[in-house]
Amino acid sequence: MPGLPPVSVVLPAYQAAATLPETLDSVLSQAPPPAAVVVVDDGSTDATPDVLAGWAGRVTSVRTDNSGGPSRPRNLGLARCGDGLVSLFDADDLMLPGKLAAQAAVFAACPEVDLCFTDFRVIDAGGAVLQERFLDGYRDFRRLLRPCSLPDVGLLSGPDLHFALISANFVGTSSVVARAGRLRAAGGFDESLRNGDDLDLWLRLAREGAVFAFLDRVGHAYRKVDGGVTSRGWRRLPAVIAVRERQRPYVTDPARRRVLEDIILKAKLAYAWGLDRDGRHGEARRVYAECNAARPTWAGIKGSLLAGLRGLRAGGGARR
What we know:
By secondary structure, the protein is of the alpha/beta class.
């Protein structure tokens, strides 16, 4: 479409040979096509490099040693982009037709916007639809949206955006188109986090006054696969906890602070439960002790006692 700002695409890939061809086809089929597609291979040991070789000339391929998470590849990709618009996308997702043009139109009509996200559908490994609109159940942030000059677009910023993201991460990374310069100015993705780096960046942007736009349409298909980062259950919780704990200095309203502390406590209790079920009873008791020191609850007291009993039955050891 004439007059729309160009959009580049940054795509981290690890062991992505099975899904990458379909993903790249969906990205390069956008009309107008992306200004550039930067694929960062995070030390894959499968056929990902061979797949990328087949797309030479159509995508820019960067290879790096494995970093253990998507944050470093995303930062490397961002470094290859200018300060224009960039789409963040994952190597096993599918970009639906018209996504980039629709989001570019939001930036053209609303120059105050720093980041635009959309709804998305969830598919399984074979492509069958599991959920058509993932954000249908996320009502709290929708109530905070301000109208925009475009239909089906709402704006959100400031403390309301920050607190809404603390309560629930409703911004799917592959749905995002943002100003690359703004992402880098906020510090990019935190490479110390193995997961949760996306929410951590959204929260920093919110604290710095960035304006988010929600385009209420399905923009991509998120592929839910076994073994993916988001399928790791309780093992993801340390990053979830760390990202929420970082928000404490910025949440001063007493009611909102209570909500934040409740979210942290529930995540810690869930993590302790996971450790205990994994046979790491001593670690579980230490996390339960932290929970009970912060605020004693029946779940925390009972969990600590049961973890202690299981540890005794196992000979007092904790499997690591």
